[in-house]
Amino acid sequence: MTTRQYILFAIPSLIWGSTWYAIKFQLGTVDPLLSVAYRFLAAGILLILFCLVTGRKMKFTLREHLMMLLLGLCLFGMNYWFVYEVETTLTSGIVAVIFSLIIFFNIFFNAVLLKGKIKPDVIVAAVLGVGGTALLFKNELVKFQGGNGNWIIFLLCFGGLTFASLGNIISAYKQKKNVPVLQANAYGMLYGGLAMFAMVLLLGKPLRFDASLNYSVSLLYLSIFGSIVAFSTYLKLLGEIGPDRSIYVALITPAIALLISTFFEGYRWDVFAALGILLLFSGNILALRFKTKKTVT
């Protein structure tokens, strides 16, 4: 990869490594579905304003808007609703291990829907990454006790993985059709936020806002950095190196989250966590070590 592509990889990895904690402040008084709506409505409006101020093209065909709607529903709506719901029940570590499986979803959908090749090095990197993530959160996995109610949670996880992966594929497809990333994200986030707000009304969930500092600041952080900045850089990278390799961002973020926790929460490392980090970064090197192809613009 080029230096620029490594920067595109690093930015969302570092940001999403911190959003695991920010999301926790979104859970409580406000229903998770409404929190997702707030997050992406704010992100969509802010990004649209940015695009208008900077003079970017904002007129698109109906077909292109439908693709942006699908992008919004998958990547900025249903996916995050399911994640927020799951995090009210499971620990962040368990969620990280489950959602690390998205790399296999991307490999599958990239091959089936975009006719991409299944590359042996990417498969090996994926196995190393998922294995490393599992070792990082070994203690939480050992303590986890299954139950009948957890089947619903795992179905939500599967749904979240599917929607997130399809969102990745839609973004890769629209970039091949020369739809700019920023504008597509702006409309997609707005559509996703509106769709989630409509579901709040349809499901009769209470409309409320938590004016506490923790909720408000975390919402602002998630909207600007966790959504606008992170997704703009990540999806640009996805268009350049493909959804099978770029998704390794999702595997590296839990490791970054633990590194942050070491300094701010006193996380103590053990031999399994250290081995997990080694596997993760080994897979990372393998997944991203390839000859740069012509950039998709």
Automatic annotation (TrEMBL):
What residues does the EamA domain cover?
6-137, 152-287
Q: Name one GO cellular component term.
A: membrane
Compartments it resides in: Membrane
Give a single Pfam family match: EamA
Record keywords? Membrane, Transmembrane, Transmembrane helix
Task: Respond yes or no to whether keyword Zinc is given for this record.
Answer: no
* Domain of life of the organism encoding this protein: Bacteria
Q: What kind of membrane protein is this, topologically?
A: Multi-pass membrane protein
Q: Quick one: where is this thing mainly located?
A: membrane
Which residue ranges traverse the bilayer? Answer: 7-23, 35-54, 66-84, 90-109, 121-139, 151-173, 185-203, 215-235, 247-265, 271-290
Question: Would the keyword DNA damage turn up in this protein's UniProt record?
Answer: no
Q: Which residues form the signal peptide?
A: none
- What family does the database annotate? Belongs to the EamA transporter family.
The identity of this protein, by name, is EamA domain-containing protein
What organism is recorded for this protein? Draconibacterium sediminis
